[in-house]
Amino acid sequence: MATKTYDLISRTEIISPVYSIDLGPIPQTYSQLLVRVLFSTTNLDNNLYLKVGFNNDTTTEVTQVYSRAQSNSVTESTETTTDGSIVTQARANFPIPAFADFKLYDYSDTSSNKHGTYTFGFDVSSGDAETGYGGFHWKNDNAITSMQLDSTSGVDRFSYGTVISIYGIEA
Description:
By secondary structure, the protein is mostly beta strands. Helices cover 0% and strands 58% of the residues. The protein has one domain: Jelly Rolls (Sandwich).
């Protein structure tokens, strides 16, 4: 059997600062998705924490468990939100970019809740990097047809050069 690989579905590059990014419609012909976000912010005074939502949902409960490592410490956390979003610990601080990769499994299945994993990394300051890994459970049976990327503060903007790529594995 041939090994299945990720096919590029779409690539979006931000050419002027924006507060949020809508991705969709997302084709329903893949068994799983990889969403890669390379981002930075225009705000000199604040960090842009990446917030991810699905289908413009603002009411579904999402539980996430993640670990993050910085310098010589590792922390683990469990969080639950009720606004349908994942608040990652990935953050950009001008002019230093960050990344986050999300894997969405069975995202088009309408008979079960959705789940996935994510990794993230960024430079905190002066070469002190932070990385992490998490899993999430979006307690909704709807197929994921769109994603929304936002800042937790609502005032930070994604800057020029932010790139979002969506890849899929054929079903």
